[in-house]
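Open question from group meeting: does this chain pack into something compact, or does most of it stay loose? Before anyone orders reagents, we agreed to write out a predicted structure and look at it together. Recording both the input and the output here so the notebook holds the full record.
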Amino acid sequence: MVLSEALRKLNFFPHYWRHFLAMIGGILFPLSFSPFDFDLVIFISLFLFLKSLVGADLKTAFFVGWIFGMAVFGLGVGWIQISIHQFGIPYWAFSFGLTFFFVALMAIYYAILGQCVSLISVGSPLYIITIPCLWFLSEYVRSNFLTGFPWLLVGYTQLDGPLKGFIPLVGSIGCSGLVVFITATLFWSLKRFKFRWSALVSICFLVFFSSFLLQNVDWTETHKNNLQVALVQGAIPQQIKWDASQLEGSIQRYLDLTQEYWEKDLIIWPETALPIFPENVPDIIEMLSQKGSDTSTVLLIGAPTKGVTKEKYFNSILQLGSSSDSYSKRKLVPYGEYFPGKNYFRFFHKYFLIPMSDLSSGDSLKNSLSVKGREVGILICYEVAFTDIAFSSLPKSHFLVNVSNDAWFGNSIAPFQHLQIARVRALESGRPILRATNDGLTALIDHKGGFIAMGPQFNPAVVSGTVFGRSGATPYLQYGDYPVLYFSVFIIFLILYKHLRFDVDSNY
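Structure tokens returned:
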């Protein structure tokens, strides 16, 4: 607020101070997420966003929101250009253009949100309840519409923040609404009461103190059985991972790392640790199965598999050893693992050289594996970002397993964001997560989203330990987003009804 007034007085960008504030707010936004983890910065970012929309007409609000979104997604998920350029399309301009298009498309969510926010008078008490509802609905739609993109949700910033206690209660999107509620209350208090802080302080104290109390609640119970686990991180560079001449060396590295952990209950190799169809290396599969049987060890190994028909291929997890089974990925990455509308965009499709980019979805009813009498929910890479997929095996599953290969994104912030999402899923569900990755960040995560053990990035390593399963369900696992969703829809419809009724009455 002070900054905007100063800009006006100095006649600096006299017509575009809104855009400037929105851009600054958007730049600050990703700093609240991993690996930066400045969780309180999110309040500043949202405050600037709300300030930039005060008094704006619909056209201006749309553009201001779009600028905010461009900064958010441009800095927050710009890493997708790495995988597109280095492993898909070798033309820099082409990969940059596709990344820009994606960022611009995602920014529209904030553009529309900006228009909706601009319609609510800051002077009205309805402001502090309507804005959080609008934000919740925006993130909910973004997470579920078409293929969905539940990345950079505001609630993720509170994993280690002051509102952490609410995540098992209302989920990450519900927590987003709480963050926006506090920010909107601050903004409204400054605008309405001219620095009269009593109402703000009381509300914030109540919310933060409630969160503190909720953090001490165990929503789930420790299961009687535990698992001795070993997560194997091969750190195979993506540049050579699919090179046939490097196959023997890659497999041997995983075998060497596994050698001293055969007495564990469960050994996990990450997504596509075996970069070849299992039937092409029958000797390896037979050796691993026999070794697992001899030591009463279960192995979960990432590998591509073929369907009944030759036209279908899957990103799968093989279960070998004392028991055998498999799971195939159900939620595929668009334009990474499959090409939506390929028949209509054949020109573009031929330029995509990404390995395993023409996959099929696995059985929607297959969501878990049985490991020594314990149900284990399986999530391959991107699936951990979607609560409907992540929780489909719950509450029957005692553990969740997440395997991934984040080498696609090089030395970027993507693996840290991915790990943060997995930790949030653990907190939301009250389940430990066993996360095995190719090059980091491999980790054993407890049911509160904390670390039991964690491996280094970009180096071969084995993360091992004892993990206790959990039973029962958190409130969020039981009810999902529906309570907050119904409440938000009700508030918006109530406001629309009153507005329309007032317009009708005023015409008479």
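Observations to bring back to the group:
The CA atoms of residues 405 and 438 lie 5 Å apart.
The domain at 221-473 is CATH 3.60.110.10 (Nitrilase/N-carbamoyl-D-aminoacid amidohydrolase).
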